[in-house]
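WARN  no MSA supplied for this record, continuing single-sequence
INFO  ligand: glyoxylic acid
INFO  echoing inputs
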Amino acid sequence: LTAGKCPQIDAARVIADLRELDRRTGGPGGARRLAWTDEWREARALLGELLSQIGISSDRDEAGNVWARLEGDEEPAVAIGSHLDSVPSGGWLDGALGVLAAAGVMRSWVSSGQRPPRSLALVDWADEEGARFGHSLFGSSAFSGTFDAPHAGELCDQTGQRLADVVAADGVDSRRALEAGRRRARLGCYLELHIEQGPVLERRGLRAAAVSGCVGIERHRCRFIGQTGHAGTTPMTSRRDAGLAACAAALELEQIAVRCAGTATTGSLTLRPGIPTAVPGEAEMLVDVRHAEAAQLHVMLQAVLGAARAAADTRRCGLRVERVWGIAPIEFDETLVVLAREACAEIAGSDFALRSGALHDAAEVARVLPVAMIFAPSRGGISHAPEEDTSDADLTAAIETFDRLCTKVLISRGPIAERVA
Ligand code: GLV
Ligand code: MN
Ligand code: MN
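INFO  complex generated
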């Protein structure tokens, strides 16, 4: 079987499905598919509708990941997918592109009447974003076996609700989430399509690129404890202002990231009591530190924690640090990345691979299976924002490139087939 004899994806249909998802779960304020909410369930209901139109049933594993299988001539299956959840005011494509393109790959095989040479397994990972509890890759880490149930279950959102209780409302027992790993046995590799969420492809004029791996991340909560006092009567010289300690630390993190050629983000800063008439006696900051190399990530983290300590000391504040979540950097599978580059060259006319600064379920899956990813460009490099966008022409090229990669893996013989078998 050659790629030319295989069915080809209907990219326009995938884009239409993405627009329908946006109509149901997005709007002017952006995507609203925060995991474990009604909008997320609505997005998954749409996926269920699309799959049943195709004629494929789906089920859920112990971590709340949704799976759908299309049987082929050979096992194990090629897994394809991404995540339907979004950050609270997110973009229409982050995650959704990969899931609906995966559905498109399934649709093309079913409607052609051809049986795929190898089985396909679609997956919609649960809570990739970690926007609410700070724990990214919930479902994919349960699948790969790195999920730390006792720690994760106790993580709380801004309103004090525990992760374990919230996921239970969706029928997920976080203590049993690791049982999702049983699905590994029937899978040979994992392929994911995603938007880049950064500026590289657009700057280089590329319509698709291969992804070589993902950066590592350390995510910590730093709580500065000073003394709350009256805003009008507490002398400037005798304050123990926890808010200013946190701000000083945040500014220092920026310098550390620049020095170390990584990224450091203070994405959340909460001051208490949080009124204009009181010196903040408490400040809580959530810090996300990223680097492509494990050793450098460690160096950066030590510098960040040192900066937080110094800022606390300068303002006579206490400091409590808690590790929320982290992941080591990872390289994707060399053989599959080469195939991904070939697909880019054949369909999008360019052969380029880059490392992802954004996190993906693929980073967890790559710990247990050979993995490759394809990126589509992001307009202005913007993501995790309502303005996130990609032109239809670029989406079409990237969707067709991903489809070509899937085909290449499905029909592969020899070393690649052995790699995924
Ligand atoms: C998710 O998109 C992340 O990069 O954290
Ligand atoms: Mn994503
Ligand atoms: Mn995201």
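The mean pLDDT is 97.
INFO  checksum written, moving to next record
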